[in-house]
């Protein structure tokens, strides 16, 4: 009986603590809280003197001097970027860690002679998010409803997805969370859209993150909401989900492959026994295309490979530029240059890719038509995922009342056209592209 009473008291205590919605994204993260007294609140963060609701999903580790020697200082989010840019001697800025969650071969990495597990690195971000939310909301944060993609990056099976969820849960626990539940990200985005409705609708949600593109087909609206959000009623409202493990980062990779890698020697050769061979192994350029791999190229073995390649290369300046990019850890600057080009191409038929840092000074014109040709395979995979969702749900696309698109890549015109062609431009909507999932998670948490 005592155990029963203790459990009851624990549940009563827990019921008084808020449950936040957390969208831990590949590129950006956000936190929201819904309450009766203050409505829906988004955590805001200071970045370069401005306020933003997006927390960059990055970790920065640097060595700092102390009275007794040196120690490793860790920062995350906007603070990490500010420390990184201000540092004369760069530490390690790590991006897109979420993309590693399903990989059983990546357990961690050594930085400044110390081993860090993936869960520990992720927990650094989550701990800072939690502490920041506590200060802003004025309440202890120990419970969270967390978004997850339909299919994690790199996951080839349900077991891989389950492994990713287990690792993410462990990271939350390390960050001081006592309980964590998960909700599909496109379903969470649906809750956000539902809050704007005064009638019921059958909707398609497209959530485009940095690493995944996820879709859900479900009924939403005040009538559905009034019937409650029990698992049974929820499953009746949710007609189906689908997703592919590619999105914004995959688009970025094409720009790096077509514009950046050639300037770094991807097409260059070296002489070996009077034979012309590729100057640098292809896998290095492959890693250069993926933000979560680029951070880990700066190892002793890789640097030895590159310095040796420079000595034999027919175009040593290009290999030196690659060495500078890796050695000076310029992944963030490269990421920003790629993002600027994508943004410009989303608003004009042509843009200019500009990247000037280290020994690189690139200024290359790029047309929207060229970019869309580069990402044709990814666009085809996205179309296939949408089509498979309707086939499995047994629903005619004409029955859909509204299509709601969220996430950064929903701005890409070629992505938009996929949905305009199928559903008509008048049925396609978007909004709160970077915070819809966190908003929906908070609303869902408050209704449970």
Report on the architecture of this protein.
This protein is α+β, with helices and mostly antiparallel strands. The protein is built from 17 helices and 22 strands. It has helices at residues 2-15, 77-86, 118-137, 158-174, 185-194, 222-226, 231-237, 248-260, 282-288, 291-294, 300-312, 316-327, 331-347, 368-374, 376-393, 413-423, 436-447; strands at residues 19-23, 28-35, 39-42, 45-47, 50-52, 55-56, 58-66, 69-76, 92-95, 108-111, 114-117, 143-148, 179-184, 201-208, 213-220, 238-244, 269-272, 275-278, 350-357, 360-367, 402-406, 428-430. The strands form seven sheets. Strands 1, 2, 3, 6, 12 and 13 form a six-stranded mixed beta sheet that branches. A five-stranded mixed beta sheet has the order 16-15-14-21-22, sandwiched between helices. Strands 8-7-9 form a three-stranded antiparallel beta sheet. The radius of gyration is 23 Å and the shape is globular. The chain starts with a helix and ends with a helix. Residues 1-14 and 230-235 have low confidence and may be disordered.
């Amino acid at each position: 009986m005592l155990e029963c009473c203790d459990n009851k008291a624990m549940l009563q205590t827990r019921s008084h603590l808020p449950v936040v919605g957390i969208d831990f994204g590949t590129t950006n993260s956000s936190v929201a809280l819904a309450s009766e007294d203050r409505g829906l609140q988004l955590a805001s963060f200071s970045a370069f003197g401005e306020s933003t609701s997006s927390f960059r999903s990055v970790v920065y580790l640097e060595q700092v001097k102390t009275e007794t020697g040196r120690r490793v200082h860790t920062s995350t989010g906007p603070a990490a970027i500010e420390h990184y840019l201000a540092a004369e001697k760069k530490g390690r800025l790590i991006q897109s860690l979420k993309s590693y969650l399903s990989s059983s071969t990546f357990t961690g990495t050594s930085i400044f002679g110390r081993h860090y597990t993936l869960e520990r690195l992720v927990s650094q971000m989550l701990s800072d998010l939690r502490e920041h939310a506590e200060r802003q909301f004025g309440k202890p944060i120990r419970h969270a409803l967390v978004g997850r993609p339909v299919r994690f990056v790199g996951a080839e099976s349900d077991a891989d997805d389950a492994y990713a969820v287990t690792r993410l849960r462990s990271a939350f626990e390390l960050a001081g969370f006592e309980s964590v539940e998960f909700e599909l990200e496109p379903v969470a985005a649906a809750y956000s859209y539902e809050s704007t409705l005064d009638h019921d609708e059958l909707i398609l949600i497209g959530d485009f993150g940095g690493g995944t593109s996820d879709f859900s087909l479900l009924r939403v609206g005040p009538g559905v909401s009034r019937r409650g959000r029990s698992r049974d009623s929820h499953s009746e409202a949710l007609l189906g989900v689908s997703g592919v493990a590619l999105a914004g980062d995959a688009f970025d990779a094409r720009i790096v492959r077509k514009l950046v890698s050639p300037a770094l020697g991807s097409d260059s050769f070296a002489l070996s026994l009077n034979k012309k061979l590729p100057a640098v192994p292809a896998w290095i350029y492959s890693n250069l295309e993926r933000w979560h791999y680029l951070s880990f190229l700066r190892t002793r073995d890789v640097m030895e490979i590159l310095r040796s390649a420079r000595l034999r290369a027919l175009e040593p300046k290009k290999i030196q530029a690659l060495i500078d990019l890796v050695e000076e850890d310029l992944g963030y600057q490269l990421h920003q240059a790629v993002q600027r080009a994508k943004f410009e191409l989303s608003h004009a038929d042509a843009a200019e890719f500009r990247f000037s840092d280290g020994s690189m000074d690139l200024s290359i014109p790029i047309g929207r038509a060229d970019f869309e040709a580069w990402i044709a395979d990814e666009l085809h995979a996205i179309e296939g995922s949408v089509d498979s969702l309707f086939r499995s749900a047994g629903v005619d696309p004409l029955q859909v009342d509204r299509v709601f698109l969220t996430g950064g890549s929903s701005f890409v015109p070629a992505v938009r056209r996929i949905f305009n062609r199928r559903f008509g431009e008048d049925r396609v909507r978007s909004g709160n592209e970077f915070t819809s999932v966190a908003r929906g998670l908070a609303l869902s948490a408050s209704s449970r």
